[in-house]
Write the structure tokens for this entry.
Amino acid sequence: MDGSQITLDDLSNAPDLDTLTERLAAKGMTPGWIPREQPILWPEPSTDFTPAHWKWGECRAAMDGAGKLIGTDLAERRNLILRNPVEGNDVATARTLVNAYQTILPGEEARSHRHAPHALRVILESEGAWSVVNGDKHPMNTGDIVLTPGWCWHGHGHDGQDQAYWLDGLDVPMVHLMEPMFVEEHPDGMEPIEKTTSDSPYRFTWDMTQSKLDKATPDPDGFFGRRIAYDTSDSMPTIGIYVQRWDAGFQARPYRCAANFVYCVMQGEGRSVIDGETVDWSFGDTFVVPMWKRVEHSASQDSVLFSMTDEHVMRFCKYWRFEALD
Ligand code: GTQ
Ligand code: FE2
């Protein structure tokens, strides 16, 4: 039906509800009371995102393969996106977050760009790789966490001897939803390096993380164990960072919460049961705990896990909820 032909009388004096509904459709409206494929409201979070798990051995092998087949001259970033197997999803690892493993060869440079999405890197194997962030060269060595907040220029390079590997984390799916996407190539390719930073708010070294963990005590309720937070509220408020140290034998209390989490194993081995799915994790693995899924973590070896989350966005929006499940 052509909406422009519909008169006020057609709308105010429709003979029956079906006819009114038809006329409303032509005017770009649907009655709230009709049945829908997707209801507008539902009783509690029910995400399609799954507790996906990527194993380091496979991902590292694939990066080695990519290292032989494509250079950073062609692939601006030699990265492997961790796509959650949800129908229609091409990017997201969790609803609001994307992760990718990235690798760079000794002597290579991955040219600079900047974009609206915030990004961080968890360095899994590297001696001598670096990220330049707004002209400051940030060393990226094993165990470091390096931030590249939105619209900061950043490029990567490698002065060491052995291929370097890390995990990227960005809020791209959130930017896709909200649509403030911008991206720009640096006019010089690799941006000029002004200095090597020794003390940057964008770099959390393995040693820093360890000394913070040394001082941390497990949460009294037993959900998170010994856990520290890195404050990203000024630099990248969409991505919260926690690092947890779970000693061999640690068993967390099960819970669910209204936030999405992606974990990356920095050390050790353990098991997380997520919505009934068992994830046996070890060094370098990445796994997802989607919104409102029951999770029960345990460690069989002394372990350190990085995690990133949209929890702070949920809290800001006042959507945050937490429920113990034992
Ligand atoms: O290293 O700049 O995995 O811009 C995805 C997008 C890495 C990066 C990714 C990026 C980067
Ligand atoms: Fe980037």
Observations:
- The pocket of fe (ii) ion (ligand 2) is lined by residues 113, 115, 119, 154 (CB under 6 Å).
- The chain has three domains: 1-41, 52-204, 209-324.
- Residues 1-41 form one domain.
- The mean pLDDT is 97.
